[in-house]
Amino acid sequence: MMDGKVAIVTGAGGGIGREIALMLAQNGASVVVNDIGVSLSGEGANAGPAQQVVEEIKAAGGQAVASTDSVADAAGAAKIVDCAVQTFGRIDSIVNNAGILRDALFHKMSGDEWDAVLKVHLYGAYYVSRAAALHFKEQESGSLVHMTSTSGLIGNLGQANYSAAKLGLTALSKSIALDMQRFNVRSNCIAPFAWSRMISSIPVKTQEQQERVDKIKQMTPDKIAPLAVYLASDAAADVNAQVFTVRNNEIFLMSQPRPLRSVHRSEGWSPESIAAHAMPALKSSFIALDRSADVFQWDPI
């Protein structure tokens, strides 16, 4: 499905990114395997993970090159895209997968913890997508696949930075899709459920938390790759601006914000009439204060 195509996968040194890079190569793509090899919190650097995935792809007869530039600044992102163009002659698909975690309850979160996570997830996706945009425009084709999260789409505890970045990423994807559809460029999101080092930071202090972690461990990163490869391919030419979730063998199309209910008052509203009329009328449609785990309660299929 990817014969003759060139793809970039960020954060591809392990976990979900690695599986996507391997499957893209298995389907004929030449792959730029980008990973700076940092810890889960974004510290340290190691070229080894990216190069190891490249060697796996080459051993299986595929084409790949390692990139260790950071997505968190515009210059690094430009180098990642340049690596694809210089090595393989073009760029067709981007999978924005790179990420770090700096979990903390909101009232305890530092400015550095906030900035670091947004820089990688949201700014990183913007920088890499923007660097590829001119190439996509000139060739009038291209596909972007962004890894979002139900932590942003639904909610989670202790992840204000990560949740904000991931929900922002879905809006970025929609804006890219709107702005670049005239050039046959598509932009979609996947919210993956899979055991990886990103998930390994979930605290396990109660039996309920242990059961949740045990469920997630059943959902391996290789389950995410097929949808990512499909969305990157020309087979998905009519799929644009959508948000999907993959949970083991389940694929969900996620809702996007639309009006639920409305109330009207011909004479306009006062704070008092809102309290007496508007809120009671709307309250039955309020969204619950739930987390991702509250919505996806059943065992993975």
UniProtKB/TrEMBL annotation:
Residue span(s) of domain Ketoreductase: 5-198
Gene3D superfamilies documented for this protein: NAD(P)-binding Rossmann-like Domain
Domain of life of the organism encoding this protein: Bacteria
InterPro entries noted in UniProt: KR_dom (IPR057326), NAD(P)-bd_dom_sf (IPR036291), Peroxisomal_Beta-Oxidation (IPR051687), Sc_DH/Rdtase_CS (IPR020904), SDR_fam (IPR002347)
Family that this chain belongs to: Belongs to the short-chain dehydrogenases/reductases (SDR) family.
Protein name from the UniProt record: SDR family oxidoreductase
Organism: Herbaspirillum lusitanum
